[in-house]
Specification:
CATH topology of the largest domain in chain C: MetI-like fold
Largest sheet of chain B: 6 strands, mixed
CATH class of the largest domain in chain C: Mainly Alpha
Helix content of chain C: over 70%
Order of helices and strands of chain C: HHHHHHHHHHH
CATH superfamily of the largest domain in chain B: P-loop containing nucleotide triphosphate hydrolases
Distance between the termini of chain B: 32 Å
Radius of gyration of chain B: 18 Å
Structural class of chain C: mainly alpha
Shape of chain B: globular
Radius of gyration of chain C: 24 Å
Shape of chain C: flat
CATH topology of the largest domain in chain B: Rossmann fold
Number of domains of chain B: 2
CATH class of the largest domain in chain B: Alpha Beta
Chains: A mainly alpha, B alpha/beta, C mainly alpha
Strand content of chain C: under 5%
Oligomer: heterotrimer
Number of strands of chain C: 0
Number of domains of chain C: 2
Structural class of chain B: alpha/beta
Number of helices of chain C: 11
């Protein structure tokens, strides 16, 4: 409760600052317009105008909300201007890439934990590759896959997969190694096979790690999908809306795409959080 | 009883009630206790009896909800501001990024001692706890017993009259513990400090103290106060003497009586 | 065809050697040789397959071609590196991490603000912040200033969250100890809580190195002067000159790991006492 009040205060402060900034940044344009027209404007007129420009430097929050409302509820889903349509496209490649990436990450982690050679050869490279800006390769992947005739959902999902498998692999290696020596020794006294140890001990104890890294992977996957939409010439998807908006100076459109991407990310991460809560509660790891 | 000696810590009718989510907990109920200068007072009792809480009230780390307490004739808050006591916690709490000498210097830096004075005192207390050659080591390079000795040295470094110790040897094994008990007694004899000492162990309490305060839980209160008749000179084998065993039996009775009330 | 065959043979041989080495005693030398061998194998396999199977360089140039391109276009690569890394990423990194650190110290005295900012910061850190790039490019122009601004926004929240969390990291007993010395706020901050926060602060600094480079490169996709790593990647991809793209990626990889490595090295010196370092 105390936390909620604090959070709401901070959010409220951000909105106030946003309005203030919108006024400050849009004021110049209003004044210039008035000067060109040879009229004088009162302070209240300036304020009113800064809140309602068509291409403001910084749109006010309510302008963005109105735009989102107009492009989600009031537009048909099949329309090219519907945010739900664009969001859906981004979501599908995010989800596909996330699934592939997580599976790849988990598989890799299991093989790393069970094979010393894999561990010693691959693990240092996985960690090193975390420090490399993978997103920079995104345009190349799209174009190259296009050149061999693969286009549409798959190339974007590949980027998402690439971004999301790292956190899952690293987190799962940690999670699968979470059982302590005593627990592992106990399995040894039962003469459990590696497979039994994996299923009955390692996988259950890795669950908290798995969900934590899945959240990171989901966020990364969405970023990958958005970036993957940039080089395709801005056809469809939230990334395309961002790029098209920046070509034509449609700031309201950029912001509404940005906010929808944020909401999408939040919903997806919270979804994993909810699954995490249910699973861990069922497993008795959470009270 | 040393009637004419001066009271260092005096608690009257002291009460402390914690408000928690599961209702209120009476941690200290009507505690009356006087600790005189130079005494070694042990607080013993099962967990939840308020012995640690009482020590923390003396140190101004908890606020009583009723009654009065004075430390060196001041309120605990004033006494803390005047740096009237050194406090030793259950764990050594040494900073891993400072050497042993650096850790002992920490309170001296905070209290604004000069550089030369700092070095002099560090050397002094290191000798006092027999760690002279370990000043440049880091805490994690030392054994648990040595770490705890270093934390005692840290509490002694600024030479406060009162030493408050909250189960300082609780996490150590019995052999190390015996050794440290012996050293602590020697140190007390040399420095003539007033010591408040919380413990779980009956032999430890009897071996060390001039006064043993037996406490019992729910509500936390004093069940018995036993003045020790043992001489000031105490070799380890005094623990086999008849007198020692008699006092220990009385402490045990006090503890048992507290439990029967439940 | 023969090349591909040789490469696969090399792969199998090297893998067998790695399996053999990793069965043996784990010396410091082996710990280096095994991953190194694995990296070399990947390069050989790549080269062999591309040459042997006649893969078009438009799809995947062989490492040798990338190396040749790298060596012959050093001045361009250097110019791009300065534009993107030194001007964009590094300046944004310093401003972003610095201001997040200062804000963390400022709100440290207000538990109310901390409780409010921590969830918000965590939330923002999980958002696709990179999307703000087109807006910042619009505000700050095409040159490096807008790239630095994107980097500031990207590194700010991870750094803030880590620092705030680090400052709460000292345990209860140690704070009580400071209280028994009746230490002032600043004394306990400088002597206890900041040192105790260092592992967290460095965690934030390390995460931010990668984010900074990503931010600076991706921001260039939304508009840049005719230099910079992101600019070069998009234009060379458009001309299907993939050897140059790969050369830029090599630069990015080298810069990214060196940046991270330097921060990790400083961390090792500063937090020598932490269990993970000793």
């Amino acid at each position: 409760m105390k936390n909620l009040i604090s959070v709401l205060t901070v959010v409220f402060a951000i909105i106030i600052i946003w309005y203030g900034a919108a006024y400050m940044m849009n004021k110049q344009w209003t004044l210039d317009q008035a000067e060109r027209a040879g009229t004088t404007v009162t302070a209240s007129e300036v304020f009113k105008d800064t809140m309602a420009q068509e291409r403001p430097q910084l749109p006010a929050p309510h302008q963005v909300l109105t735009e989102i409302w107009k492009t989600t509820v009031e537009k048909k889903i099949t329309s090219k201007r519907s945010l739900i349509y664009h969001g859906g496209i981004t979501l599908s490649s995010t989800a596909l890439g996330f699934l592939m990436g997580s599976l790849l990450g988990i598989t890799l982690a299991i093989s790393i934990v069970h094979s010393r050679a894999m561990d010693l050869s691959v693990m240092p490279w996985i960690i090193a590759s975390q420090t490399i800006p993978i997103l920079a390769i995104a345009p190349m992947i799209i174009v190259v896959l296009n050149a061999v005739g693969i286009s549409g959902l798959i190339p974007k999902a590949m980027i998402s997969m690439y971004l999301s498998f790292f956190p899952v692999a690293v987190g799962m290696v940690k999670g699968l190694r979470a059982p302590d020596t005593m627990q592992l020794d106990l399995m040894k006294t039962y003469r459990a096979s590696p497979w039994q140890t994996l299923v009955k001990l390692r996988l259950p104890s890795s669950m908290p790690y798995l969900f934590t890294s899945l959240k990171i992977a989901m966020a990364a996957s969405l970023v990958g999908a958005i970036i993957g939409e940039l080089p395709t010439g801005a056809v469809a998807g939230l990334g395309a809306r961002l790029l098209a908006g920046s070509y034509y100076g449609q700031t309201i459109q950029i912001w509404s795409a940005l906010i929808s991407a944020a909401v999408l990310a939040a919903v997806l991460v919270m979804l994993i959080g909810a699954i995490q809560n249910i699973t861990l509660k069922r497993m008795g790891m959470l009270r | 009883m040393e009637q004419n000696s001066q009271a260092v810590i005096a608690a009257k009718n002291l009460n402390l009630v914690f408000e928690t989510n599961d209702g209120s907990v009476h941690a200290l109920k009507d505690v009356d206790l006087t600790i005189n200068k130079g005494e070694f007072v042990s607080f013993i009792g099962p967990s939840g009896c308020g012995k640690t809480t009482f020590l923390r009230v003396i140190a101004d780390l908890e606020q009583p909800t009723g009654g009065s307490i004075s430390v060196n004739g001041m309120t605990p808050h004033e006494a803390r501001e005047a740096r009237a006591y050194g406090y030793v916690f259950q764990a050594s709490g040494l900073y891993p990024w400072r050497t042993i000498a650096g850790n002992i210097k920490l309170p001296l830096e905070i209290m604004g001692y000069s550089k030369e004075e700092q070095d002099k005192r560090v050397q002094q207390v290191l000798e006092l706890v027999e760690l002279d050659s370990f000043g440049n080591k880091y805490p994690w390079q030392l054994s648990g017993g040595m770490q705890q000795r270093a934390s005692i040295a840290r509490a002694l470094s600024f030479d406060a009259d009162i030493l408050l110790m909250d189960e300082p040897f609780g996490a150590l094994d019995e052999i190390v513990r015996d050794h440290l008990n012996e050293q602590l007694l020697a140190l007390w004899a040399r420095t003539e400090k007033t010591i408040g000492f919380v413990t779980h162990s009956i032999p430890e309490a009897v071996y060390l103290s001039t006064k043993i305060v037996v406490m019992s839980p729910r509500p936390g209160r004093i069940a018995d106060v036993i003045e020790s008749t043992l001489p000031k000179e105490r070799p380890l084998d005094i623990r086999d003497s008849k007198e020692f065993l008699e006092i220990a039996a009385r402490v045990r009775d006090g503890l048992r009586a507290g439990h029967l009330d439940d | 065809m023969i090349w591909a065959f040789v490469a696969i043979l090399f792969w199998l041989g090297a893998w067998a050697l790695n399996v053999y080495l990793s069965r043996g005693k784990l010396t410091k030398r082996n710990k280096f040789i095994i991953p190194f061998l694995f990296g070399v194998t990947i390069l050989v396999l790549w080269e062999g397959l591309v040459v042997g199977l006649n893969v078009s360089p438009i799809i995947l140039p062989p490492p040798s071609a990338v190396a040749a391109k790298f060596a012959s276009s050093l001045p361009i690569l250097w110019e791009d590196f300065v534009q993107t890394f030194v001007k964009g990423a590094l300046s944004g990194y310093i401003i972003g991490c610095g201001s997040a650190f200062i804000l963390a110290i400022l709100i440290d005295r207000s538990p109310f603000l901390q409780r409010g900012l921590l969830p918000v910061g965590n939330f923002v850190a999980a958002l696709p912040v990179i999307g703000i790039a087109p807006i910042l490019v619009m505000w700050f122009g095409f040159d490096w200033q807008s790239k630095a601004a994107v980097v500031v926004v990207m590194v700010f929240f991870p750094m803030l969250v880590n620092t705030v969390q680090g400052l709460t990291e000292s345990d209860h007993m140690q704070r009580d100890l400071m209280k028994t010395y009746s230490a002032s706020y600043w004394q306990s901050l400088l002597k206890l809580r900041l040192p105790a926060a260092m592992p967290f602060i460095f965690n934030g600094l390390k995460i931010s190195t990668t984010l900074a480079l990503i931010g600076a490169i991706v921001a260039e996709f939304f508009g840049s002067p005719i230099k910079g790593m992101g600019f070069r990647i998009t234009t060379e991809v458009g001309r299907l000159a993939l050897d140059m793209v790969w050369a830029e990626i090599v630069v990015a990889a080298l810069a990214g790991s060196a940046f991270y490595g330097i921060m990790a090295l400083i961390e090792k010196v500063v937090t020598f006492w932490h269990p993970s370092q000793r």
